[in-house]
Amino acid sequence: MSEQPHRDDDLLDINEVAVRTGHSPGTIRELLVNGYVARHGVHPLYSLGFKTGAGDGSRLLWMRSDVEGFLLDLRQAAARMSAHPVTFMPTRVRGTA
What's the predicted TM-score (pTM) here? Predict the structure, then answer.
């Protein structure tokens, strides 16, 4: 008997990923298509998704640890940015004194 490499609770489907990231399932699918990838490169999280079968109806899944790691990285980057905010000095607009 072969053992499954991951338990079901280690996997998240597209709806669960959508809730965690704030993107709709449709947006996630759009970020996976070749046109987006050609223009912007692969998405660091969504590109890690995988299908459980070859059919069109097979589920798109992500490892929970990949999703949680990506979101942790985002939170840490946001914390670093808020600790060192960038301030912009307004410049004089052309035609004003």
Answer: 0.71
